[in-house]
Amino acid sequence: MTLYQSIYKKLVQIGILNNNGKMPHMYMKFTCDGMMGLNCDRLTNSMIAIAHNGLLNGDVMADPDVRQESY
Prior knowledge:
The chain has one domain. It has one helix at residues 3-13; strands at residues 27-30, 37-44, 47-56, 59-62, 69-70. Strands 1, 2, 3, 4 and 5 form a five-stranded antiparallel sheet that branches. By secondary structure, it is α+β, with helices and mostly antiparallel strands. The relative contact order is 0.18.
């Protein structure tokens, strides 16, 4: 299994993508105490953006280590 296949499988398991490989909502936000929020946005029918967004001096900042990928 390739890295991309593994990531795709995990996105389906946690409900970001449905069984047809589509993100069913325009955006989703996941929160957990003590962790940065995980934000998922549908950019197009075949592209999503996933980012950890935190606050820095009152400004919302996206974690630069999470990238946009086409699927």
